[in-house]
Design goal:
There is one protein chain. By secondary structure, the chain is of the alpha/beta class. It has one domain: Rossmann fold. Helix content is about 30%, strand content about 20%. It is built from twelve helices and 13 strands. It has helices spanning about 10-15, 65, 95-105, 120-130, 150-155, 165, 175-180, 180-190, 200-210, 215-225, 230-240, 275-280, and strands spanning about 5, 25-30, 35-40, 45-50, 70-75, 115-120, 135-140, 245-250, 260-265, 270-275, 285-290, 305-310, 325. The strands form three sheets. A nine-stranded mixed sheet has the order 1-2-3-5-4-6-7-8-11. Helix 2 (about 65) links the parallel strand 4 (about 45-50) and strand 5. Helix 4 (about 120-130) packs across helix 11 and helix 8 packs across helix 9 (about 200-210).
Length: about 325
Amino acid sequence: MSHISTTSPVDAACSHVSLPTGFSEATIEVNGVTIYYVKGGTGEPLVLVHGWPQTWYEWRLVMPQLADRYTVIAPDLRGAGGSSKPPPSAGYDARTMAEDIRRLVQELGFSRIRLVGHDIGLLVAYAYAATHPAEVERLVILDGLLVGIEPMWSEFLKDSRSWVFGLPQVRELPEQLTVGRERLYLTHFLTSVAYKADALPAAASDEYVRAYSQPGAMSAGFEWFRAFPTDIKQNLESARTKLPMPVLAHRDETTRRRRQVACRRPGLRRRATAFSARLARFPGSPVRLRRVGACGRLHTADGRGDVQGPDDDRTHPAAEHAEYYRIVA
């Protein structure tokens, strides 16, 4: 039986972080792990799944904007932030982590959700939608790729940034190299993928460093990447069946276009990257691609109409990760 608690040691470790107004934090035992989550708002459930090397905290600015229309649920994936960090044998593949989120949603009393996934969270969100399509009303995928799906996968592996996928495949060495050096490692990554190196506020960077400096956190993050061979098999299997729900894919304007193709589906004729075209072929439903300008890693959430987040360049130099948002229908 699952157990919800707001006073566990896991919560205490996260309580120093200011929650958005109207939101509360809790932990829950599901699927053999402890999942920490932040929840607030009223309406249909909207689940926001973070990427690496982040936690629920990446959504903190957009959550209040969504809370008027949705019950917003932002969990930490297993291995991240306030969630427990089980041994590798427990499983860090996307389907296992998707089941964590699904059980959380069920314990909170919901059976059908809107789902947003960014980066590693994209893999988890897709696994959720592909395995339980009747339980996902809408799917939003942000700034990432489905590992194993060609041609984007092979093209990305040629990119110099793909080292972040390759290094964790060597067991123990990445942990030995980063212990006590988490800030150096994470800061290098966060600044290298930003549109501008100084885009991420210091407070956010400090929070991610704090979260991944906890015992076992870096190793757990590496396990997400070590699970890629399993994720690839799962994605290739899932790709045989089209998703029935509407899918919204977002990419930043600065993503290099290796190849452009035309997506041709009923009611859809749009120019897109090869990755997004591939999405149009196998997930199905109306697939919409939105390209967001003046950013390197802009993350969004599903909504109605346009809602601008704190993305004024006069005070914020550039959009990075989930620090600045545009919410689109």
